[in-house]
Amino acid sequence: MKRDTDYLFAINKIKVLENRMLNKSILNRMIDAADAFDAYKMLQETPYGEFLNEHDSPYDFENVIGKHIEDVYRTVDEATGSTSFTRFFRVREDYLNCKVLLKVKNFNGENYHLSSMGTISPEILNNCFKNEDFSELPEYLRIAIEKSKELFIQTEIPGYIDFAMDRFMYEHLYEMAREDSFLRGYIEREIDLINIRSFIRIKLMDESIDFLKAVLLDHGRLDKDFFYNIFNEQLAGLADRFKFTDYASVAEQGIKSWLESGSSMEMERLCDNYLLEYARQGKFSAFGTKPIWGFILGKLNEARLLRIVMVGKLNDIAKDLISERLRDAYV
Fold it and tell me: What is the mean predicted confidence (pLDDT) over 139-167?
């Protein structure tokens, strides 16, 4: 059993690294830059800068983000003397990569990107799917892939690949997080927010409650019966039903925006900000695992913000629209 004081060295290291994380001021300067090239150059003065000599084009930003996160993971592993913290996030990437490859395989996709942040290299995964031989993969991934394939064959509904893989992934992540109250709380809240968004989409699609039952994930803090009991109510008035949950503000603002704009973009942003606010508890903790989890979650959020900015700049999206899509920063 680890004590709260066992990670003091790692936490001290993390607190130093937190001081170099990107804040909203840096991100806003990148948004205001004349073009993607100028925005990309601004990363020279950040921890991402050491990788820009090797990747000097703004179109290489994904490689730079990947190398920086890999560096962060290596630092966390060394500082904690354990790979258990980063493994949690690497396993998630394995599932997400397999989800991408299942779609590519079934829909003849060609342009796709696999994360190098998983426990299994993209090369191995590509070969497994190309040869339809998954014997090299761990059992939990083999089962998830086979069950997802079976469900798609039965239903011929593309979305079921997502639903099936997500169910296996979150079941696995929940089990990995079960013994750590902070991480477990994060996953439970993430599941709740996914279920809320799924519920709204299903209502907008005018699908049946049986479809909802097939989609909702286990292990959320909101019981599934909560969603079943309000299924027949009008979406416009559903925000009130969340009034006494932890998600009152997210539901009120998110549902309103979704119905008015026809887009889930603002709801997605509100959900990400909610989870970041939970993760930020680590920033104000001095002991235990909370600062470590918070830091990693904060860095992954930072990577997401950089992607939003760089994709926006590369596609000449208006500055105000990029700003609207931006989430909060960890620091």
Answer: 90
Q: In b/e form, how buried is each residue of 278-292, taking b as 16+ CB within 10 angstroms?
A: bbbebbebeebbbbb
Task: Kindly tell me the sign of the dihedral angle through the C-alpha atoms of 83, 124, 108, 114.
Answer: positive
Let me know if residue 170 belongs to a domain. yes
Q: In sequence order, which ranges of the chain are alpha helices (DSSP H)?
A: 8-18, 24-32, 36-41, 61-80, 84-107, 122-131, 139-155, 159-177, 181-204, 209-215, 224-229, 248-261, 265-279, 290-314, 319-325
Burial class of residue 71 (count of CB atoms within 10 Å of its CB; 0-12, 13-18, 19+): middle
Reported as a single tens digit per residue, the pLDDT across 100-131 is 999 888 777 677 889 999 999 999 999 999 99
Report the distance separating Cα 269 and Cα 278, nearest Å: 14
The amino acid at residue 257 is: S
How many domains are contained in the chain? 1
Q: Answer yes or no: is 258 within a domain.
A: no
Residues of the chain above pLDDT 70, percent: 98
CA distance 36 to 57: 9
